[in-house]
Design brief:
By secondary structure, this protein is of the alpha/beta class. Helix content is 45%, strand content 16%. The strands form two sheets. The chain has a six-stranded mixed beta sheet with strand order 1-2-3-4-8-5, sandwiched between helices. A two-stranded antiparallel ribbon has the order 6-7.
């Protein structure tokens, strides 16, 4: 059953999961206009330093700032992808939030699950993290105690801390500190995501296979879902501002447009509207309104 590329998940389920992940991006998929771009007031000095030092175009600079703002509002969308995909993989389930002990994934195999040290269990309880360094000592201790409690309740299980971005490919005994004491247990393990894929699918390179097919599937889903593609108008609106300030040098005019976003009420900038004809004055008033985040029909 590998005709489409992956044997451990169907094409329909994989595309469904990718589409659901994209939907999780929520408001980050909304297009950026200049009002949204400047909602928290951008730092014009930083933008101009960055643009000049990194020798980027205004298009790249504005695009980078929009990307930064979108990325800053990240709400674990990719964590959703890494976790929820296992609902489609045989013998795995993803409990609803707070159910079944609050585990992210539970893997059960009646034929037995062989651990690296030779132990055989029939259930693995998983706590999943996106990156190896996202847990502080308090969080690590709390997670370890939760795993210890699970082992006391069920002597036919193991507990995994699965890391999507681990320091290396690994399935090792997890050693951490709880109440200033170094602790470890052979059935409490720290496992990289590729090793967990290998365990539950029986294919050593299953995660690699998924990664290789993922870009095309994302592209196909996006192409067939026009509503998820944002159309940002910030650059065009900034160019309109630049064209209205009466500066012949395009680069300087764009810098002034950027300055107006953050410094529209500062001394000296008000003179930009002096001596303009009525059309230009209305344009600049609208610019100031945009910069202040005020909707206007002027």
């Amino acid at each position: 059953m590998k005709s489409w590329g992956l044997s451990f998940i169907t094409e329909d389920n994989f595309k469904k999961h990718v589409a659901a992940t994209i939907e999780k991006y929520g408001e980050k998929l909304e297009s950026f206009d200049i009002k949204r771009f400047n909602k928290n007031i951008v730092d014009p000095i930083k933008l101009i330093f960055d643009k000049t030092v990194y020798q980027t175009s205004w298009r790249e600079m504005v695009g980078n700032e929009i990307f930064r703002q979108r990325d800053k509002s990240n709400n674990n969308d990719i964590g959703y992808f890494h976790q929820r995909i296992f609902q489609y993989i045989d013998k795995c389930r993803v409990p609803e939030n707070g159910k079944e002990g609050g585990w992210d994934v539970i893997y059960q195999n009646p034929d037995g699950i062989i651990l690296p040290d030779g132990d055989v269990v029939h259930t693995v309880y998983v706590e999943m993290k996106n990156k190896h360094n996202t847990m502080n000592s308090a969080s690590s201790g709390k997670t370890y105690i939760k795993m210890q409690s699970q082992l006391l309740d069920d002597d036919d299980c193991a507990c995994f801390l699965v890391e999507a971005i681990a320091q290396r490919s690994q399935n090792i005994k997890w050693e951490t500190t709880v109440d200033q004491k170094r602790v470890s247990h052979r059935r409490i393990r720290r496992v990289s995501l590729d090793q967990f894929y290998a365990l539950v699918t029986g294919e050593q390179d299953a995660f690699y296979q998924m990664c290789m097919i993922l870009p095309k599937v994302i592209s196909d889903v996006v192409i067939n879902s026009e509503s998820v593609v944002p159309h940002d108008t910030v650059l065009e609106e900034l160019k309109n501002i630049a064209n209205s300030v009466g500066e012949n040098d395009e680069d300087v005019a764009m810098a002034i447009a950027i300055y107006l976003l953050g410094f529209n009420s500062y001394n000296g900038f008000a003179k930009l509207i002096q001596g303009k004809d009525e059309a230009d004055e209305n344009m600049l008033k609208r610019i100031y309104a945009y910069a202040k985040g005020i909707a206007t029909n002027a």
